[in-house]
Design goal:
Blueprint: H1 2-8, H2 10-16, H3 20-37, H4 46-74
Helix pairs in contact: 1-2, 1-4, 2-3, 2-4, 3-4
């Protein structure tokens, strides 16, 4: 669901994902992309692509952090480097 929001309203998707600085950068990025998008239509997709990539990277970082914290708390899985 967050990816759909990020595609249609990129700054809102970034804000809902907890990335306020990326949302501000995305707002700044929207202005030139709209202006130059009249000449190069593919530029209309740049803010959405930025938001989707930033959200995916943040989610991967969260998942990695959870795995590391779990290993630190409970130890490595059985049979790991036996």
């Amino acid at each position: 669901m967050i990816y759909l929001i990020a595609f249609f309203v990129p700054p809102l998707g970034l804000l809902l994902n907890g990335q306020p600085f990326s949302a501000v950068l995305n707002l700044i990025l929207i202005v030139p992309c709209i202006l130059f998008g009249m000449v190069f239509p593919v530029l209309f997709l740049v803010p959405s692509a930025h938001a989707i990539i930033a959200i995916a990277m943040k989610r991967e970082t969260r998942k990695h952090r959870e795995i590391v914290e779990s290993i630190e708390k409970h130890g490595p899985p059985p049979g790991w480097r036996s």
